[in-house]
Amino acid sequence: MGQREVDHGLVERVQQGDKKAFGLLVEKYQHKLGRLISRFIPDASEIEDITQETFIRAYRALSTFRNESAFYTWLYRIGINTAKNYLAARNRRAPTVTEFDAEDAEGFESGNLLRSYSTPETELMSKQVMQTVNAAMEKLPEDLRTAITLREIEGMTYEDIAQMMNCPVGTVRSRIYRAREVIANELRPILDTHKKKRW
Amino acid sequence: MNDEISLLVDGEVSAKSASRLIERLVTDEDLRQEWRTYLLIGNALRQHLNCSYDMTDKITRQIMHEPTVLSPRRSRFRQPFLYLSAAASLLMFVTGTWVVLGGSPFTASTSLSGALPSAAANASADISPYLLAHEEFSPTSAIQGDEAYVRSVSFRTGTTR
Fold first, then answer.
1. What's the gap in Å between the CA of A32 and the closest CA on chain B?
2. Which of A135, A150, B30, B150 is such that its CA lies 20 to 30 A from the CA of B158?
3. In this predicted structure, what is the pLDDT of residue B6?
């Protein structure tokens, strides 16, 4: 099973009437979608509104989603259309640099090209989280750091990581989990401080 | 349990486990927090991090006021029924074409009667005038359809009752 199948499982739950399951999809993709929309719209509050609008539109159209494409590819198209409609309604044109092929959406990496849509406060909080994660990564044993880097940054499957690290898949599973737990332990104090915030 | 959430975040679980974990995530807030933290770590490592105020809550609240999305569950018997309906459609098409082109089952029985030539010849001599008189009702006539049901109506103008 891959990400696509997990997403399809969530979509099926929503299609059967479980509205709360949609929240898991929002949590999973809100940052990625927000970064995408920030290519079109510079204003932080507008980005947030359009990201929300995209998810609401996606929810309304979910009965038509037939699992023929990945959920994020589908969401990506809705996001781009919502942003373009928003700009058209205000007689503003979408920058041409944002015109990606929808099929590339799965592997879309925002990188440094994207504008940050943070306010000063959220930027500070994001910075705090980034510093904590980076510091925790530095402290990780080499094998844990390699495993989580290959997974989260390179997007490799457990099987590929196992081949690369020359160890069983079970070991990769354990290393990634342990790395996450170490980083999560460092993050918890910050997250508890900002309990009212969503990340 | 957290180790399974880690697998779910990476899409490395079986379909059965995924279904069970999703069920738990929807109801168990502590587990949900772990899921969020693991997603946050991934976003931070990929430099995707942006903090936003309660976006999930806002969206979830708004969705609660939306009509529930309901799609029919996909049945595992869907494919066999699809083939069956396709076969039935094909059969209907072939039968229809056969009848329209003059090869009705009744005509087929006439051809079978060729096996009994003398009886067929006698019968043919007897019924020929009958067939000639009723030719317009034959399904093999050039003009078919509503003609049998057409009635002519005429009236004269300038007369009063």
1. 6
2. B150
3. 93
